[in-house]
């Protein structure tokens, strides 16, 4: 008995499921919320007839979020599957009624085959229109069958088809419109309005019966429906290109009797109507779809339609209070695709990149079309298609006619799941966001379900073309999507070992080109030059170096300016607060990291064959408090540190002798000294042994040991070493000093007596100019560089950095190999990233260099290592992502070519036309080029 009950239970569920599937597949006529409401209502009413079914765990929840249905096409599936979906991710297309001639004009409409219905119209009652749709079963089954038909022809198309056709007509309008006109006329974009219909099936005549009642529609919409469906002509035909109606007729199903408060065998649905002008009011009412006004300036006559427990307002008329142009704000022009994106809080970086992608022609065509069938839900690297669905939904909203600025909240939520760094509301880099978005879309749309493992073969003596093609086919075997087809190219990477000259060649894919910004101007830098032989005073030296050069360029310029000998080397350091802040030793470091207000010193040191320790002498002077201050005296740093190299076994006297030698140029002239005040020399070692020492155990002088008549010690220096904890150890003159333990460098603090301060010119010792001191009322000229120069700098052979060593397979050791990149295969969409931002552990910087980039003809033919006669290497610009401001903030916008050099600026939700001569600015950050066909 229980087994029989279980079979009955499963059979009932299957029948209900099949009924819902068949009927809901035709619910493409309605909005998703209405579908969900009807489905939930009918499903639970059915279960209520069999209370035992409600005990099942599968249907125990009556929560509002339960039983969101994922609808499958009725032609391919006769079942439904419970699935938890977001309201925006419903997978349901609305159904649109459009003029058949308008549909056939499109390239897609000309090739589509539809089902033809002969329509009998009756309008006996002024309150209701009845349409009887009977399928024509003769040979007229193509779109060319009704040629010469004198009546009215309409077409039923899905929402995807409608948007594709609408974009096709929009592109045609853009192409034929005068390029000097900033806007189209009001007649070029027609409105869309919904009508509520009651649908039933007449099995006797095998036809669909559609009733349009005044009680279900607002008066204005009903009158427009009368103008459309009750023409003067006697015959009316409707073509179904959506493929929805045939399934409804072919499967004999029983409609519910009186369910959901409706009459028997009738379902209340919604149909979108497009392309029919209002015969009474003309087309002037569609002006609100052309120009966006402030909401407070518009009055609405609207009705409320109950959907899924909430009231959604259907706007029947919207009349601006003030029709003057001065009384409105232009947010977008009268073309499709000119819809802004709301800023959710520091999301301008995201809006800028999205607008550039949303105006990439083939990306638009792809996501406006039926892209859902290509979603890869099995890819562990993807997001089960969620990111692609969210982006596709967002792009369709941006291309919907007359749309208000879109808030991309759902898209941002899905993106944060794929790339958590973009969660929250911090400012980010638009290029970094673009890279993650393209990668995520690729993984969601990758046609490869199971990526094969492919072992890379050695090139041996094969030709570059053969190896490159092999690399590319291996890449396509694992990666196949619209993103790969459009955005990915290939470059050749060559590494050469500096020792054994081993060469390695690989062919790697790229999604975009990140180009450096070389400078065509020179930068003036002033440094202080110091010698270690005690023969010359410090002197400023000014050199010119490339503005975006490297440290090696600065060293070469200094060596030439000071006539550096072969047995000498230069050590460049930055001085901050009278001590060495950092050593500039890496030749590949960028000079852009050196600021104008930095203070640099270059020390001339003898070249040594063995690793002699570097000794840095720092000067300290007793800082006495004033009579009003009650603090104890402190030793403080002053002057420029002096540098020398000593042997590993030097003792205290060697340090003292070297220091006095370095100080000798700073001695005051003899005529300013008394006969008994001769300066201390390096030959007075024995006399210095009797000089009393000071207490330096805690780093401070003992104030009690100071007399009223003199300093703590009479006439010399005292040498000591401080550790990281501030403890001070005095250097004894006759004892050897231990070798330094940190980076072969030793810091020695020299305590000066007041007597020594009088004998040496400390003013010269403290003189230290800045790298660059701008003069009053002068400005540097704006830097300018060609985009081709940036590309040449990118392709230039350079050594790898010390942190990016290459493991040489011949030497079996990491080597600082030289690297050379060459363009091998270019994508259809070329994204160029200008590297304006530089980062280091110390400083962040943005380059404001003006890049002169081509707009109409970016020719890369001469930069290609491989010539392909079938592909053009010339590109035209169509979008720019701009960044204004400095590091850590600023603002992003986008410039977009909307066809035939009509440029628009997208500044979050504001969209406005811009002339082509204004799109070239120093804010250009990411450039989007498309191949010239």
UniProtKB/TrEMBL annotation:
Keyword Hydrolase set for record: yes
Gene Ontology terms for molecular function: cysteine-type deubiquitinase activity
Keyword Iron: no
EC number(s) stated in the UniProt entry for this protein: 3.4.19.12
Coiled coil: none
Reactions listed under catalytic activity: Thiol-dependent hydrolysis of ester, thioester, amide, peptide and isopeptide bonds formed by the C-terminal Gly of ubiquitin (a 76-residue protein attached to proteins as an intracellular targeting signal)
Similarity remark: Belongs to the peptidase C19 family.
Primary role: Recognizes and hydrolyzes the peptide bond at the C-terminal Gly of ubiquitin. Involved in the processing of poly-ubiquitin precursors as well as that of ubiquitinated proteins.
Protein name (Swiss-Prot/TrEMBL): Ubiquitin carboxyl-terminal hydrolase
Native species: Manihot esculenta
UniProt lineage: Eukaryota, Viridiplantae, Streptophyta, Embryophyta, Tracheophyta
């Amino acid at each position: 008995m229980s087994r029989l009950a279980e079979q009955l239970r499963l059979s009932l569920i299957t029948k209900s499921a099949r009924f819902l599937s068949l009927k809901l597949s035709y619910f493409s006529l309605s909005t998703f919320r209405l579908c969900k409401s009807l489905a939930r209502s009918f499903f639970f009413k059915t279960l209520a007839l069999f209370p035992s079914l409600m005990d099942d765990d599968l249907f125990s929840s009556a929560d509002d979020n339960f039983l969101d249905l994922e609808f499958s096409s009725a032609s391919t599936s006769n079942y439904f599957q419970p699935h938890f979906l977001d309201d925006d991710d419903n997978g349901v297309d609305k159904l649109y009624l459009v003029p058949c001639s308008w549909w056939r004009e499109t390239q897609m409409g000309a090739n589509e085959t539809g089902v033809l219905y002969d329509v009998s119209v009756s309008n006996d009652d002024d309150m209701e229109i009845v349409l009887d749709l009977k399928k024509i079963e003769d040979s007229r089954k193509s779109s060319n069958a009704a040629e010469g038909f004198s009546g009215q022809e309409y077409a039923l198309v899905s929402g995807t088809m409608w948007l594709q056709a609408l974009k096709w007509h929009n592109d045609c309008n853009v192409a034929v419109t005068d390029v000097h006109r900033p806007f189209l006329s009001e007649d070029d974009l027609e409105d869309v309005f919904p009508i509520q219909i009651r649908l039933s099936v007449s099995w006797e005549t095998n036809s669909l019966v559609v009733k349009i009642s005044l009680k279900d529609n607002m008066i204005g919409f009903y009158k427009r429906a009368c103008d459309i469906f009750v023409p003067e002509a006697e015959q009316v035909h409707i073509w179904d290109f959506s493929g929805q109606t045939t399934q409804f007729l072919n499967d004999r199903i029983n409609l519910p009797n009186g369910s959901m408060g409706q009459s028997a065998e009738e379902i209340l649905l919604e149909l979108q109507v497009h392309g029919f002008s209002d015969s009474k009011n003309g087309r002037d009412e569609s002006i609100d779809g052309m120009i966006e006004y402030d909401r407070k300036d518009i009055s609405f006559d609207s009705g409320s339609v109950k959907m899924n427990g909430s009231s959604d307002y259907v706007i029947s008329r919207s009349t601006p209070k003030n029709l003057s142009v001065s009384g409105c704000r232009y947010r977008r022009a009268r073309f499709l695709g000119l819809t802004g994106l709301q800023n959710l809080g520091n999301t301008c970086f995201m809006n800028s990149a999205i607008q550039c992608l949303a105006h990439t022609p083939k990306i638009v065509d792809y996501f406006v079309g039926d892209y859902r069938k290509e979603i890869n839900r099995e890819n562990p690297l993807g997001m089960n298609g969620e990111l692609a669905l969210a982006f596709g939904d967002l792009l369709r909203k941006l291309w919907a006619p007359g749309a208000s600025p879109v808030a991309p909240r759902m898209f941002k939520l899905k993106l944060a799941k794929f790339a958590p760094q973009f969660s929250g509301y911090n400012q980010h880099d638009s290029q970094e966001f673009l890279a993650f978005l393209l990668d995520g879309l690729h993984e969601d749309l990758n046609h490869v379900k199971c990526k094969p493992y492919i072992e890379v073969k050695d090139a041996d003596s094969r030709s570059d073309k053969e190896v490159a093609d092999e690399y590319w086919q291996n890449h396509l075997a694992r990666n196949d999507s619209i993103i790969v087809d459009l955005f990915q190219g290939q470059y050749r990477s060559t590494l050469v070992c500096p020792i054994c000259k081993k060469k390695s060649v690989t062919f790697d894919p790229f999604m975009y080109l990140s180009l450096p910004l070389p400078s065509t101007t020179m930068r003036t830098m002033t440094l202080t030059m110091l010698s270690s032989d005690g023969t010359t005073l410090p002197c400023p030296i000014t050199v010119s170096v490339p503005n975006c050069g490297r440290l090696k360029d600065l060293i070469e310029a200094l060596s030439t300016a000071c006539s550096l000998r072969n047995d000498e080397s230069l050590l460049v350091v930055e001085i901050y607060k009278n001590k060495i802040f950092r050593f500039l030793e890496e030749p590949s470091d960028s000079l852009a990291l050196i600021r104008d207000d930095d203070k640099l010193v270059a020390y001339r040191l003898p070249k040594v064959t063995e690793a002699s320790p570097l000794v840095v002498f720092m000067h300290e002077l007793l800082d006495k408090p004033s009579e009003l201050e009650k603090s104890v005296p402190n030793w403080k740093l002053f002057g420029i540190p002096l540098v020398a190299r000593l042997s590993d076994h030097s003792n205290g006297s060697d340090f003292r002798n070297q220091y006095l030698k370095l100080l000798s140029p700073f001695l005051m002239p003899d005529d300013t000294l008394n006969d008994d005040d001769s300066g201390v020399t390096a030959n007075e070692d024995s006399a210095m042994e009797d000089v009393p020492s000071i207490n330096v155990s805690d780093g401070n002088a003992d104030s009690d040991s100071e007399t009223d008549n003199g300093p703590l010690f009479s006439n010399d220096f005292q040498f000591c070493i401080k550790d990281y904890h501030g403890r001070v150890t005095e250097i004894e003159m006759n004892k050897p000093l231990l070798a330094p333990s940190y980076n072969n460098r030793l810091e020695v603090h020299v305590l000066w007596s007041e007597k020594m301060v009088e004998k040496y010119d400390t003013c010269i010792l403290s003189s230290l100019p800045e790298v660059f001191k701008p003069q009053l009322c002068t400005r540097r000229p704006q830097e300018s560089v060609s985009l081709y120069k940036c590309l040449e700098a990118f392709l230039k052979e350079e050594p790898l950095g010390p942190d990016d060593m290459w493991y040489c397979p011949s030497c079996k050791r990491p080597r600082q190999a030289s690297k050379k990149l060459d363009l091998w295969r270019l994508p259809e969409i070329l994204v160029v990233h200008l590297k304006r931002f530089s980062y280091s552990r110390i400083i962040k910087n943005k380059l404001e260099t003006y890049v002169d980039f081509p707009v109409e003809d970016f020719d890369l033919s001469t930069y290609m290592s491989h010539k392909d006669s079938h592909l053009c290497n010339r590109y035209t610009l169509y979008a720019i992502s701009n960044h204004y401001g400095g590091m850590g903030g600023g603002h992003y916008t986008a410039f977009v070519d909307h066809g035939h050099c009509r440029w628009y600026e997208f500044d979050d939700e504001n969209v406005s036309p811009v002339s082509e001569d204004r799109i070239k600015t120093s804010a250009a950050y990411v450039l989007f080029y498309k191949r010239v066909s």
